[in-house]
Fold this sequence. Notes:
Elements: H1 2-42, E1 52-59, H2 66-77, E2 81-90, H3 95-109, E3 114-123, H4 125-130, E4 135-138, E5 143-145, H5 157-162, H6 187-211, H7 216-222, E6 227-229
Parallel strand pairs: 1-2, 2-3, 3-4, 3-5
Antiparallel strand pairs: 5-6
Amino acid sequence: MTQDADTIIDRRRLRRRVTFWRATAFIVAAIAILAVAAAGMGGGIGGKTRDHIAQIRIEGTITEDDELIGRIGEAAKSAHVKGVVLTIDSPGGTTAGGEAIFEAVRKLAQEKPVTAQVGTLAASAGYMIASGADHIVARQSSIVGSIGVIAQIPNVSKLLGNIGVDVDTIKSAPLKAEPSPFNETTADERAMMAAMIMDSYEWFIGLVTERRPLSEAEVRRLADGSVFTG
């Protein structure tokens, strides 16, 4: 009987020890998770407490990216960011998106040294953004350039006709909501689009002329949409 009592007591002690070590392990794991989370939050562009060079990645299709523009602004304001490297790998994107990010980079460059490092590709709006930096560094095989503006208008009117679908349009003026994918593009519509494209193209040329060590004549010679290596 005494032996059974001793066995029960030993088992209870063992259970308490197991419970204690399980609780301890849980607390240690929780502390580790919180520490990692805190390190992640403190490791942002301006969250580090030591002086450093910040790296900002600009990848994929360029759009008006508020999150990216916010990070660029954060780097400009941080006292611990002593310089910024923009790592760019982009085929381009929207003109307005490129302009918005370019302007953010220029504001950043007024506060900190900025270098654009081109990976595989910095074309069109990607090159526009790179031009906002103080320096551009590219590999020998990196693809840059494509200075120009393009608009592509799909036309599905024949396809719809083949399946018996007609689209009726009622509008206040001939150029309203044109060009449309539901009808052939008219000469007036082409002229309207061409004027918009050339306006943005001239702005792009002026931007590159201002930011790169090239004359306007040299930029115009290069601004035929071509891409270049290195």
